[in-house]
Amino acid sequence: MKEWFEFGWNFERYLSLLQIITGWIILAYLVFHVIYVNRLAHGVTINDSFLMPLLVIFGVVLTFHISNGIRILLIEYGYLTPKGHINENWLRYKKHRNYEMIMMIILAISLIISFWVIYK
């Protein structure tokens, strides 16, 4: 556990930490969503003008979580790692780097669309 707090993290470790954080954010959203729907079902009116930016941010969080989860699955099944990668640095593998770039482009596009939805 102490190696998590050492300096010199690589990009993979940051993505792993963000995957955990976004998972907790999604769990918190689900809890608040159930509470919100329950209050609406019981006739409590809620001013939801502040919810739109939160929903857009949640959409970006969800997009990251899904695309990073797919990346993790592709790594686990060996599609983004070279064959016999035990002795080589698979983080520099071309397929893995390409997927990371695609993932970042998807996140940037979702962020742009999110801001467009908020401020249109």
Automatic annotation (TrEMBL):
User: What InterPro entries does the record tag this protein with?
Assistant: SQR/QFR_C/D, SuccDH_FuR_B_TM-su
UniProt keyword terms in alphabetical order: Heme, Iron, Membrane, Metal-binding, Transmembrane, Transmembrane helix
UniProt entry tagged with the keyword Iron: yes
**Superkingdom of origin organism:** Archaea
What is any one of the record's Gene Ontology cellular component terms? membrane
Q: Which Pfam families match?
A: Sdh_cyt
Under what name is this protein listed? Succinate dehydrogenase
Q: Native species of this protein?
A: Stygiolobus azoricus
